[in-house]
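Practice record 12: protein with iron/sulfur cluster.
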Amino acid sequence: MAMISRLPGPLHQRWDWQLQGACRRSDARLFFHPSGERGRAHDAREEAAKRICGDCPVRAECLAHALSVREPYGVWGGMGEDERRAVMGPARRGACRTA
Ligand code: SF4
């Protein structure tokens, strides 16, 4: 689960970018792996999601959001879970309370 305390408030201006996401016209199951998915099936699904992100007009906003809230699941801004984890580094205990 994302760090809820790091989510931006309810101001619609901060969330409007989501209305322009290319994934709104796609099957959401492409962006989040089903339980137990591994190997080639995982890679193929994730690559398909990333291709959609590649043409998305709000890719930068999406990735910035996912990194800022440390979104742990799914493809966001063209990056998969492992890629984002590599960029973000390990979560610090208590970080959500002090941020
Ligand atoms: S970058 Fe990808 S996940 Fe983010 S809004 Fe665009 S299509 Fe959706």
